[in-house]
C-alpha cells in the first residue's frame, strides 16, 4: 500500500496505517461533512412532473440551504455565490441552475439576486417543507400539492 502523499500520524509495526488514520485522511481529503435529507428528494418527486432531472442535486442544494440557515439564526435569508454553493454541495453549475429553478417553481425557496458581483439570496419556505418532517411523507403529500 502506497502512503507517500497521505498525512498519516500513527503507523503500525508493519508500517501500515491504521483504519482510524485512513478514516481521518478521507475526511481531510473530502472536505466537511454536509447533511443530506433524503425525504426532501421524495418531496420534490411529489411536487414535480415524473422524469424531472436533477432531483438529487436539488435535494442536496436544499439540504445545504437548510444547514446554512440553521447556522445563521439572526437572518431569514442565506446569501451565497454560485461558486460557493457548487463547492459546498459538489453539484455542477448546470445542476445548480436547474436546482434553483426547481426550488423556485415549487415555492420551497424564495430566491433574489443582489449586489455586484451578483450574490444569490435564498429564503427557505419551512411552511411547505416542515409538514413532511412532522407528519410523514405519505400523509402530507396531498395537502402540499393542494397548496400549489
Secondary-structure topology with pairs:
Elements: H1 19-30, H2 38-47, H3 55-71, E1 78-80, H4 82-89, H5 93-105, E2 109-114, E3 119-124, H6 126-135, H7 137-146
Antiparallel strand pairs: 1-3, 2-3
Helix pairs in contact: 2-3, 2-7, 3-5, 6-7
Q: Could you give a short account of the major beta sheet? A: 3 strands, antiparallel
CATH architecture: Orthogonal Bundle
Ends apart, CA distance between termini: 56 Å
| Name of the CATH superfamily | Winged helix-like DNA-binding domain superfamily/Winged helix DNA-binding domain
> Do you know the CATH topology?
Arc Repressor Mutant, subunit A
Task: Tell me the fraction of residues in β-strands, as a range.
Answer: 5-15%
Mean pLDDT: 80
Helix/strand class:
mainly alpha
Spans of at least 5 consecutive residues with low confidence: 139-144
The helix content, as a percent range, equals 40-55%
Count of distinct structural domains: 1
Q: What is the β-strand count? A: 3
Q: Strand order, biggest sheet?
A: 1-3-2
Number of helices: 7
What is the CATH C-level name?
A: Mainly Alpha
Q: From N to C, what is the helix and strand string? A: HHHEHHEEHH
Radius of gyration, Cα only, in angstroms?
19 Å
What would you call the shape?
globular
Descriptors:
3 strands; Arc Repressor Mutant, subunit A; 7 helices; about 55% helix; about 150 residues; about 10% strand; mainly alpha
Walk me through the structure.
The chain has 148 residues and is mostly helical. It has a single domain (38-146), classed as Arc Repressor Mutant, subunit A (Orthogonal Bundle), CATH 1.10.10. Helix content is 54%, strand content 10%. The chain contains 7 helices and 3 strands; from the N terminus they run αααβααββαα. It has a 3-stranded antiparallel β-sheet with strand order 1-3-2. Strand 2 and strand 3 (119-124) form a beta hairpin. Helix 2 (38-47) packs across helix 7 and helix 3 (55-71) packs across helix 5 (93-105). The longest helix has 17 residues, at 55-71. The protein is globular, with a radius of gyration of 19 Å. Mean pLDDT is 80; it is low at 139-144.
Amino acid at each position: 500500500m502506497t502512503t507517500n502523499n497521505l498525512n498519516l500520524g500513527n503507523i503500525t509495526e508493519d508500517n501500515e496505517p491504521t483504519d482510524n488514520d485512513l478514516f481521518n485522511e478521507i475526511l481531510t481529503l473530502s472536505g466537511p461533512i454536509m447533511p443530506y435529507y433524503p425525504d426532501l428528494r421524495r418531496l420534490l418527486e411529489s411536487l414535480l412532473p415524473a422524469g424531472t432531472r436533477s432531483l438529487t442535486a436539488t435535494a442536496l442544494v436544499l439540504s445545504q440551504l437548510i444547514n446554512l440557515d440553521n447556522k445563521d439564526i439572526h437572518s431569514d435569508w442565506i446569501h451565497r455565490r454560485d461558486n460557493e454553493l457548487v463547492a459546498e454541495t459538489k453539484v455542477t453549475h448546470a445542476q445548480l441552475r436547474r436546482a434553483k429553478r426547481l426550488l423556485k417553481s415549487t415555492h420551497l425557496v424564495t430566491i433574489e439576486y443582489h449586489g455586484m458581483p451578483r450574490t444569490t439570496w435564498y429564503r427557505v419556505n419551512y411552511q411547505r417543507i416542515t409538514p413532511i418532517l412532522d407528519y410523514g411523507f405519505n400523509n402530507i403529500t396531498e395537502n402540499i400539492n393542494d397548496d400549489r
